[in-house]
Amino acid sequence: MFKLNLKIALRNLWKNKTSSFINVIGLAIGLAACLMLLLYVTYELNFDKESKNSENVYTVMTNIPGDNGKVSNTFEGSTTALGPLLKEEIPEIKHLARMNYLKKALIAVGENSFKKLGKFAEPEILKLFDYQYIVGNAATAMQNPKSVILTESTAKVLFGSTQVLNRVVKYQDKEDLTVSAVIKDLPDNTSATLKFDYLMPWAFYEMVDASAKELNWGNFSFVTMALLDPNTDVTRVNEKIDKVVKTHLEQANQPYFLYPLSKLHLYGKFENGVNVGGDIEQIYLFVALAFGILMIACINFMNMATAKSEKRAKEVGIKKTIGANRVSLIMQFLTESMVLTFIAVIVAIALLEIFLPTFNNLLNIKLSIGYFSASSWMWILGIVFLTGLIAGSYPAFYLSAFNPIQTLKKRIKSGGILAINLRQVLVVGQFCFAIVLIISTMVIYRQIQFIKNRPMGIDVNALVEIPQDGELKTKFEVVKSQLLKSGAVKAVSQSSVGLSHRGQNFMDVKWEGMAKPLNTQLFNQVATTYDFIKTNGIKLKEGRDFSKNFASDSAGVLISATALKVFGYTNPIGKTVTIFDDKYTIVGVFDDYVWDSPYQSNNPVIVFFDPNRTGTITMRLNEANSIAQNIATITEITKQVNPAYPTDIKFLNSIYLEKYNSEKTLGILSNLFGGLAIFVSCLGLFGLVAYSAEQRTKEFGVRKVLGASVTNLMQLLSLSFVKMIVVAIIIAVPLSYYAMGKWLSKFEFHTEINWWIMLLAAFGTLAMALITVSFQAYKSAKANPVDALKYE
Amino acid sequence: MIELKNIEKYYANKGVKSYILRHVTTSIKQGEFVSIMGPSGAGKSTLLNILGMLEEPTYGEYHFMGEDVTAMKERQRIELYRNHIGFVFQAYHLIDEMTVAENIEAPLLYKKIPGAERKSRIADVLDRFNMVAKKDLFPNQLSGGQQQLVGIARALVAQPSIILADEPTGNLQSAQAEQIMDLFKKLNQEENITILQVTHSEKNAQYGNRILTIEDGVIKEDVSVNG
After folding, report:
1. How many angstroms separate the CA atoms of A717 and A776, rounded?
2. CA pair distance A235, A253, nearest whole angstrom
3. Alpha-carbon span A54 to A36, nearest angstrom
4. Cβ–Cβ < 8 Å for A343, A14
5. What interhelical angle do A17-45 and A326-363 show, nearest 10?
6. Confidence band, pLDDT 50/70/90 cuts, at residue B212
7. CA distance A736 to A445
8. A408 contacts on B by Cβ (under 8 Å)
9. Which residues form the ABC3 transporter permease C-terminal domain (chain A) (predicted)?
10. What is the pLDDT of residues A211-262, one digit of tens each?
11. Which tens digits make up the pLDDT trace of B73-91?
């Protein structure tokens, strides 16, 4: 029976090539889109879950107290003193490792030197994560303080091989480290604090950095991770931690707590110290998108199948009279849809393989089908099965319910009122979804444009920065004058952080006439020397930049316009502010510039004068020369002064572009899948019109003989479809207006939803549908009536 | 075998009842070959459909092999289709996507007859109808008469006790029609299969041994034929 069903299903597919093609392609696109999004979702969901202990690995989070006993900020980070205390007092902690955040540092073998992400950690990190050792092992890898664990690709870059046990690398051009192990590269979905290129023991960190050695409660530049006993209740442990910390530290008003490391990536948003979701919302959105597109394709299938019901009805009738019951008929129709889905899956996987590289490029990630594990393949199989079921069930149940005598007598009126309505409802639903996606895409695009066009307060074009490493710290003035003399740059300045940065916030500010006893506004600090304003193209509102003509400038500060607003000075120049108990004189006020998120107003900035706090050199290129020429000159000069370090020149405009990344991802995805949704919907519409035209061939023939024009006939055929699109528009427009309004309200700076976006989306869809419909309508309206009437 | 008592069929349209059948009472015995005749719209096909349980009478009693059909559930009806009733249609109603052999096999599949027996029965029927060479052709590759032969073969293969034929030769040329009617007669006489046919043709009616004439939904005549 099954074999025969299968055979007949294949014959049916072959016979109705147009509709099979539409169904297979539609379903394949739907499935491919669905699989691609699921791949992305799998990738995101498996962040930091590579290790077998991953669910018991926790990282220490710190709450920063704000006003009214609330928590103003929560971040992953802790102090050096916390780790040893926890290890001693909390028995539930099996292993604990202190570490730093990643830092790009120089690592070299002979002349072969690279800046790579290095990490320091206590040896127990090897118990937290089960790294795959190519050479060496976990027991010996971190015994010797002056040793280093390389990842496979780092080893290959440095040595050209992974068999490099006990070979020597040079760290930061100073220290010789012995390679104690080489491990497999960490997966791409490893969180940024752990994705090192090489790993060094904490003991060595204590040698090179004094801040690591002292047990300190004030410096939060470290990360502490712990492996808990699998049966431990984390809330209990966190209560204990609170108590332990308070007994050891009277002024401990910064509660620490353990948070599952593998959750941090997707549930990383905290409000008042409590998790309020995070990127998981986007994941939900993508899953919805994936199944939405699949549903559209399924709807196509259902519509085509029920539209053909008249033809199939006869078959149902015959089969019933020769003894078929409903179950066997349902099985037959389901077999048909399963066969179709199966073919579609094969096409979908091919599509996926073809377009995955493009998709990866767009989103700047590295996905491969390999991310699907055995269990995810089971899921995929389930999805395929479900798709077949959804696509086939409605036709199956609908068709199998036909009364044989009606079907054989051809009395069936294309399935009755209810069926027609359902088909219309489905088409309307499809187009609703597509229109909502189009409008969303346009709004997201406009929002990104709006943010991009907002004045940034700096001129990022022709602006580059390099890290201030090695000799560049001490010989900055020399390099500066050489660079200026070479004509490659117009202005150079050094600063403690790059123009775009995070953190660096502080609160200990007092000003003249301050009303509150304590300041609660976070300020951002930048330390620089000369030419800060000039190099970055910041607009000076009052006063002046730091100048060599004023020796007193070492106790001067520049403040941003919002900082001035906080202080409330009317004549700011010459007024003083007290920061960390030191008095500073305001020498200039500049317009605010974007240094953090471009979507919200950034904290006020105070710029200090301090030649010792080095970090980044920023240069304004001389646009009279070509960029390549300028870069070559800069590279040559810095190499000369600082031969040990490779020159790592970054363009500020690309750094600032990265700030739009997450919204860009959203934009790209909704763009891509919105387009696909429209395409698949139109494909379905095309199929329906084609079928409807075929059915009405005779009617058209008669009408033509009676004198109907081509236009009349086209109207006749198109009108009912156009009506459905109009209904879809009427539903989709307010829906998307509401949804996008909500999305936009997330942003402090946002664009407005214009009526013309709605109009454009509506007319665009209508036009697309009209083109689809008219193509078919014209074809059948132009047909010779004699051909039509010859039938029957 | 078949007992009809006071069968009525009407459609109520805007309060007006339009009768198709009125007070039809008759009985058909095992082994009879009955032809139902009458002008267009007289209710012949409706009667046949009611007999074939494809339509339900609005009123009246219908017993098939001693069982009350009106009280039957769909499942029991399907059992009857599988085991006792074979249908032959004017428009053949073969399944276009199946070959000749598959069309004939279909009822056996629904009857859940094992594969080996299916094969032998199909081979048997094909042989009897001289269609072995055509078994892998599709219906649209056959002439009308050949299609109707397949239709009858399909009805016969499940070994029914009654064949209901709605103008089986209506779409055929006279030579082919004769062939079909001869076949029916042979089946009736040699295998004792009850045959009920609706026909327009006086000549075809003569093949049977009883003629029911219906006019305006009422049985006008019920005569025996001595073929």
Report:
1. 9
2. 19
3. 26
4. no
5. 60
6. very high
7. 15
8. 54, 89, 93
9. 288-404, 672-785
10. 888 887 777 778 899 999 888 888 888 888 888 888 877 655 667 888 988 8
11. 878 888 888 889 888 988 8
Of B55, B102, B111, the CB nearest to A323: B111
Count other Cβ atoms within 10 Å, centred on residue A14.
Answer: 10
- Cα–Cα separations (whole angstroms), residue A244 to A89, A97, A250, A596, A679: 7, 18, 11, 36, 61
Q: Report the distance separating Cα A171 and Cα A177, nearest Å.
A: 7
Phi then psi dihedrals of residue A278, to 5 deg? 150, -140
**Residue-level pLDDT at B42:** 86
DSSP run (H or E) holding A256: strand A256-260
Distance, CA of A627 to CA of A462 (rounded, Å): 8
Q: With left for phi above 0 and alpha for psi between -120 and 50, is residue A100 left, alpha or beta?
A: beta
Cα distance between residue A428 and residue B131, in whole Å: 51
Q: Are B52 and A321 an interchain contact pair (Cβ–Cβ within 8 Å)?
A: yes
Phi and psi of A323, rounded to 5°? 105, 15
The total number of residues written for chain B in this structure: 227
Tokens 């399909």 sit on residue = B154
Q: Would you say B163 and B88 are in contact if contact means Cβ atoms under 8 Å apart?
A: yes
DSSP E strand boundaries for A184-238: 198-201, 222-228
User: Using an 8 Å Cβ cutoff, are B187 and B194 in contact?
Assistant: no
- Please check whether residue A212 is in contact with residue A72, taking contact to mean a CB–CB distance below 8 angstroms: no
Residue-range domain boundaries for chain B: 33-42+73-224
Q: Give the model confidence (pLDDT) of A496-523 as tens digits.
A: 888 887 766 777 788 888 777 777 777 8
Domain at B33-42+73-224, CATH from 3.40.50.300, 1.20.1250.20, 2.60.200.30, 3.40.50.2300: 3.40.50.300
Neighbours of A695 (CB within 10 A): 16
CA quadruple A244, A249, A254, A255: dihedral, nearest 10: 10
Structure-token pair, residue B19: 């009768």
CA distance A300 to chain B (A): 23
- A270 forms beta bridges with A275
Torsional sign, CA A248, A251, A253, A254: negative
B213 vs chain A: nearest CA distance in angstroms?
23
Q: With an 8 Å Cβ cutoff, are B94 and A315 in contact?
A: no
- Report the helix count and the strand count for chain B, using DSSP H and E: 7, 10
ipTM of the complex: 0.77
Which residue do the tokens 């402090």 mark? A748
**C-alpha to C-alpha distance for A426 and A424, rounded to whole angstroms:** 5
Residue A736 Cα, gap to closest chain B Cα (Å): 46
